[in-house]
Amino acid sequence: MIPTRFYYPSPGFSIYWEKGNGKKLAEKMTGAFPEKAAIEHLVPRLFETDELADRVIREVYQVHGFKQADQWINQLLDGETPDNVPESLQTIIRQITRRPDWLNDELLEQGASLCRRSGSLGLMVLRNYCLMGGYESSAINKPLVFTGALKKGAAKRLTETTEFWVRIVGENAITSPQNGLKECLKIRLMHAYARVSILEEGNWQEANWGAPLNQWDMLATNLGFSIIFLDGLRRLGMKPTEAEIKGLFHFWKYVGYLLGTPESYFPETESDAIRAIYAWTITQAPADEDTLALAKALTLEPLDGPFPDKNWQKNLVYKTHLGYNWFFLGKSSCQTMQLPQTAWRFFPPIQSFFVSLGQIFVHRSAKSYRRSVLRNRKAQKKVVNAYLESHGRKTIA
Questions:
Q1: Residue 51 to residues 16, 73, 144, 243, 299, Cα–Cα distance (Å)
Q2: Does pTM surpass 0.90?
């Protein structure tokens, strides 16, 4: 069964690949894009879900409560074996703590280093390219709408996503049981809780949208953190090394594995990643009212939220983010999502020029590269912690 959300070719994303930034991204690819028939073979993934995580929600959280579940998780991650722990929870802990045979610590660190080296630029890419760009897909937005994301506000999702990303890309963080593994398990179970809740309400239209938070949409989200993130960094003047690029895809393959998506789904090269994100985007239905509502909420987040605190700062941040939206997403997508145009769209190209010049000094030696990673990570955490503090959340050490 092909759900109605499968819309080929996508009216919005076709422009991205034919005339927008996707055209330049495709130049990095060797080989051809997949044809419609090949893409249709991926449709079953729209109905695949993380069944193990769903069982944990039903057998642990819904039966024993959040407090007991969280206590068991902490004990299991510390290597303890508490009594009466449901088998589903023990199984998922064994799964995420088992090192896959393909895992390479050097590649993990190279990928995480690129994320840290991106500093505040990386945060701009995540917010204004990866997150806002994803809202143009009306189908992937549906679980957000069903779980009340609009009522909770854009700030909540933005804060959770940014905090998760910044925590797991820390040095050696991703393989730490009480850091990266715990963060990934938390997000995985949050997805499962949302999926179980949506299905129990009984209003989900599977024939139209596939399963909520299905494996193809999870893969697309993961690709946003890898290939789209990489494209955004390059557009802002950064020059990732081949080792960093290889490491970035390895890092997000591992994160995706920890989040419950089959490891075989993840591309390991840039060309394969471009083909994978093309296959997903080119089958997305037109934007709808949920797209417009989510885009508007994210656009207004600086004006509505507690950070920054002064009105002139709020207005500046609001216009700056819009400038990056237009730079990354292009005229067609921004008009589709009704994002106001601003003169700040001319700032990113200027910034890109100066960032590009600075890359010469970054790659001059191993010592200068290390200094760049440390300096930009410090700046990255300063920005994020100011944001977290304003929202009453624990800062990142």
A1: 34, 18, 20, 35, 35
A2: yes
